[in-house]
Automatic annotation (TrEMBL):
Ranges annotated as biased composition (Low complexity): 432-467
Name of the molecule in the record: Fe/B12 periplasmic-binding domain-containing protein
Organism the protein comes from: Fistulifera solaris (Oleaginous diatom)
Domain of life: Eukaryota
Region annotation (Disordered) ranges: 432-474
């Protein structure tokens, strides 16, 4: 708080002659938005990933005009009408406070917002139009796939895009959200998105309580630290982890069979996070057109049509612990174990992963990583595996490229190297001091520790420090973007001089 005020005062003194009082926020299409953030902006936003995250950052219900999409994560039994009943995914679903925050807003997805199969879009963009006078920004916090957002642009709303998939890079995404060059797209991990949403909350004039947020960051940092210790152990114990989604289908004779599809850990923010923190995640086949592996293919030593526990030692993926997308994780029951008698499944060594679902805040990072760590510590090595780890930096650009050249070959995994862990997660705020740490104040220009170029590093022209920021200065980037580069440098020197 004190830091915020001090910096604001500095900013005010320095830029008294500048043309505008507005804070700026450069979004992930490169659009620079302006807002006088002494005033609370009013917004429309997707409920779960946007609304709940911003609530954790300090947004209050008076800012939230409308929401769309499902409130919990897919596959959940969360009931917006009875939020205190809890849900099967307590780490990520809203609680009563989050639900109260969302329930005050206009619901633009009345047709689907309680559908656990998924609900990502507003029913009809025309429902947004009558709210135009009340809305300052429509927030598109998503992977860019919702084609209705071109209609929202066309209807003249100021849209702020926060990409949940890729770090901002002008050569990655076009203004219409299509990918120009996937080799220039690098996946974001949880903290990249949480940092971005924190900056957004500051820009929107929300009541960002630095002390409360620092407590959340402390919890996130402790959870990340425990997770990376558990990751080192998991490597020693030979545990292998894999991301999949499951299905139960019927063949031409009406007989049920299980199948699965996998994806590479560089593809989505949760596996990216786990890998950056050292977890042994198996890399995947890149499945074209949602290809799948059937139980017959998976159990290499079983006779087709007769998969069973006696032939489950040799499998297509040597997995000890499954990360199953939240929706299809609900398929796992005794009946499923007959269709898919995998050793890790039989031992209940699996957990759920949200896929472009669920909020992203320090609070969520803390709760989800803690739940994951508990389960990995309890997991045992059940599958023989001979693959050696691959010594690469899980943060390097080459590893993260979304064009198919990134990642590792099938069933390969990154070696545990404490010096290559994503330190961003492990920088705890200094709770004994009222001000955030000096580290992050100088973050806009601070190189990270690893020797290879780190993605997602902002390009030289990028004014926000998101990717390399330790995440504990909510205001610096917003302020940094107010100024041209020369004054910006001066500003940063001043901040560094005061806080280093
Ligand atoms: C959206 O609403 C408009 C106006 O009521 C209607 O003409 C249009 O067909 C609707 N679109 C969809 C996809 O339902
Ligand atoms: C989106 O923009 C890119 C680059 O301007 C263009 O090549 C592409 O055709 C556009 N896609 C659509 C669907 O309009
Ligand atoms: C379905 O049943 C027929 C007749 O018994 C058999 O020849 C065929 O292989 C079965 N199909 C599958 C997928 O098992």
């Amino acid at each position: 708080m004190m830091f915020y005020r001090t910096v604001s005062t500095l900013a005010a003194l320095l830029f008294i002659s500048s043309s505008s009082d507005a804070a700026t926020f450069r979004d992930d299409r490169g659009t620079v938005h302006e807002w006088d953030n002494t005033v609370k902006a009013k917004v429309a936003v997707r409920a779960g990933i946007g609304g709940v995250s911003l609530f954790h950052m300090g947004m209050t219900a008076d800012q939230l005009v409308a929401t769309w999409g499902i409130w919990g994560i897919r596959g959940s039994d969360f009931d917006p009408a009875n939020p205190s009943a809890g849900s099967v995914f307590p780490e990520l679903d809203p609680g009563p406070e989050e639900a109260a925050f969302l329930s005050g807003a206009v619901n633009l997805s009345p047709s689907c917002y309680t559908n656990p199969r998924g609900c990502f879009q507003m029913d009809n963009v025309t429902d947004l139009i009558p709210l135009k006078d009340q809305i300052d920004f429509v927030l598109f916090i998503d992977n860019g796939v919702d084609e209705k957002f071109l209609e929202v642009d066309a209807a003249g709303f100021p849209v702020i895009f926060v990409d949940t998939f890729y770090e901002y890079n002008e050569n990655c995404r076009a203004f219409n959200y299509s990918l120009i060059d996937p080799s220039m797209c690098y996946g974001r991990s949880m903290i990249d998105i949480a940092n971005r949403l924190e900056e957004l909350a500051v820009f929107l004039g929300s009541d960002v309580d630095v002390n409360a947020l620092n407590e959340q960051k402390q919890a996130a940092c402790e959870a990340a630290s425990a997770l990376t210790d558990a990751a080192a152990q998991a490597h020693e114990r030979g545990i292998r982890i894999k991301n999949i989604w499951l299905a139960v289908n019927q063949d031409e004779n009406g007989t049920s069979y299980a199948s699965m599809s996998d994806y590479d850990p560089i593809d989505l923010w949760v596996p990216r996070t786990l890998e950056e923190l050292g977890m042994p995640l198996l890399h995947g086949d890149t499945y074209e057109e949602w290809g799948e592996i059937t139980a017959d293919q998976y159990f290499v030593d079983c006779e087709p049509g007769n998969v069973n526990q006696d032939c489950n030692g040799n499998t297509y993926f040597p997995v000890d612990f499954w990360m199953i997308d939240s929706r299809s994780s609900r398929l796992v029951d005794d009946n499923f174990k007959l269709l898919f008698p995998d050793r890790a499944i039989l031992a209940d060594q699996w957990w759920y992963t949200p896929m472009n679902d669920g909020p992203l805040s320090y609070k969520i990072i803390a709760s989800y990583l803690t739940g994951f760590t508990e389960r990995i510590l309890a997991a045992e090595n059940v599958q023989e595996a001979t693959e050696e780890c691959t010594p690469v930096d899980p943060k390097s650009i080459a590893h993260l490229k979304a064009d198919g050249s990134g990642g590792l070959p099938l069933n390969a995994f990154v070696c545990y190297d404490r010096s290559l862990i994503q330190e961003e997660y492990l920088q705890c705020p200094d709770l004994s001091a009222p001000a955030p740490t000096a580290d992050s104040a100088s973050a806009p220009t601070a190189p990270t520790t690893a020797s290879e170029p780190i993605a997602p590093t902002p390009s030289a022209s990028a004014p926000t420090p998101t990717a390399v920021d330790g995440g504990s200065v909510p205001t610096s980037s917003v302020i940094a973007t107010r100024v041209d580069s020369m004054i910006g440098a001066l500003m940063m020197m001043l901040i560094a001089a005061i806080y280093l």
